[in-house]
Design goal:
By secondary structure, this protein is α/β, with parallel strands linked by helices. It folds into two domains: 3-253, Rossmann fold (3-Layer(aba) Sandwich), CATH 3.40.50.300; 267-379, 2-Layer Sandwich (NE0471 N-terminal domain-like). It has helices at residues 3-8, 24-37, 54-57, 100-112, 132-140, 154-169, 200-207, 221-228, 232-235, 240-253, 315-320, 374-379; strands at 11-16, 42-46, 76-78, 81-85, 121-125, 145-150, 174-185, 192-193, 212-218, 267-269, 291-297, 300-305, 310-314, 348-354, 358-363, 370-373. Helix 2 (24-37) packs across helix 10 and helix 4 (100-112) packs across helix 5 (132-140). It is globular, with a radius of gyration of 23 Å.
Length: 388
């Protein structure tokens, strides 16, 4: 892979958690530094808009970022890691009082309007939960994978399971589970004592058939390091926690490759013929839920999946199948769109990717709010099949 290609499309890995207080940002900061120490070019997006903490953990001053000559934000850098965070755009004690659309705008800016340069990995430190920020990132960017951080307590593990399921629903590959605070490291002798339950993270990983990336013991030094802006991996490089971070970072460095299927993001304007994605290779036994190619002619959209199966769906059928709130009653699923109001000669005008799991479509009647999941497209009854 050339440097230009790496800069254009780093592996984007989301670090998530079902609930707050599990040490997810501490894990993110230390893994990022460990990856940088291993020679990778690493960036971190502090996607917790309302509670940013990455800059402080890495010792980054809360100064307003500079702008590059092409009007992109210049990220801060510390310990070999580039960082973009809401904390760099606001005062230390100023709350981010933002509605959903503004949060989406900032997230888009943090990824697309920052002068990251050449990166190998871009880590996204997500806020806890399964809400708007998680969904926005899954829809807007081709995430290479997600890591779920949990503590050993049953309640934390139960909520972590929900986070895993959420990522699966939007077809983000789960790279593994990290069990944080899995034991207490004695500051005098270094002995690890398991004061909470142990093994819950590994059990969930086995239950859901995902990798268990490792246990990180609770180390009192973590608190001082976070407050002082010194990652534990630098302050106590031989501690059990630091060794665990390095092991996890080494594992993640070899995961999160390109998602099988056509490259995204893309936005194809049919009339102009611009933005159409190049087809991906099809292999025997390939994933049936990955789109490998698409084309359009004679009033129909042609879809080919990575396992070689095809769909031919007419423009009008696609318009009638829209599941957005304007076309379907949200609770009952009852159709609100009157088929008689949809012209027989309606046509697709634009198609774009929605994360790894869906397509967005615009039609000649001006409608453009529908999201067509790959699962829904596969379930639609195809018309006569033709070659893509």
């Amino acid at each position: 892979m050339t440097q230009a290609e790496t800069s254009a499309s780093p592996r984007m890995i989301a670090i998530s958690s079902g609930k707050g207080g599990v040490g997810k940002s501490t894990v993110t900061a230390n893994i990022a530094v460990a990856m940088a120490d291993a020679g990778l070019r690493v960036g971190v997006v502090d996607a917790d808009i309302y509670g940013p903490s990455i800059p402080r953990m890495l010792g980054i001053a809360s100064e307003k970022p500079a702008m590059s000559p092409d009007q992109k934000v210049v990220p801060a850098e510390a310990h070999g890691v580039k960082v973009m965070s809401m904390a760099m755009l606001s005062d230390d004690d100023s709350p981010a009082i933002l509605r959903g659309p503004m949060v989406t705008k900032y997230l888009q800016m943090f990824v697309r309007q920052v002068d990251w340069g050449a990166l190998d990995v871009l880590l996204l430190d997500l806020p806890p939960g399964t809400g708007d920020i998680q969904l926005t990132l899954a829809q807007a960017f081709p995430l290479s994978g997600a890591v779920v951080v949990s503590t050993p307590q049953d309640v934390s593990l139960k909520i972590a399971r929900r986070g895993l399921r959420m990522m699966e629903q939007v077809m983000v590959p789960i790279l593994g589970v990290i069990e944080n605070m899995s034991g207490f490291t004695c500051p005098e002798c270094g002995t690890v004592t398991h004061i909470f339950h142990r093994g819950g993270g590994e059990a969930i990983a086995q239950e859901l058939d995902v990798d268990f990336l490792g246990e990180v013991p609770l180390d009192p030094t973590v608190v001082d390091c976070g407050d002082e802006g010194r990652p534990l991996i630098r302050a106590a490089p031989e501690s059990p926690a630091a060794l665990a971070y390095r092991s996890i970072a080494a594992t993640l460095a070899g995961t999160g490759g390109d998602v099988a299927g056509i490259a995204s993001p893309f936005a194809w304007t049919l009339a102009e013929g611009t933005g159409k994605p190049a087809p991906a290779s099809i292999t025997k036994g390939g994933p049936s839920d990955r789109l490998a190619a698409l084309d359009h002619s004679d009033g129909a959209l042609f879809l080919r999946w990575a396992d070689g199966t095809d769909r031919r769906l007419t423009d009008r059928d696609l318009r009638l199948a829209c599941q957005c709130a304007q076309c379907r009653e949200e609770m009952s699923g009852k159709r609100l769109l009157n088929p008689e109001d949809v012209p027989l000669d309606i046509r697709l005008t634009r198609i774009w990717s929605v994360g790894n799991y869906a397509l967005g479509m615009a039609f000649s009647d001006g409608h453009d709010t529908g999201i067509y999941t790959f699962k829904a497209l596969q379930a639609m009854v195809p018309t006569e099949l033709e070659d893509v």
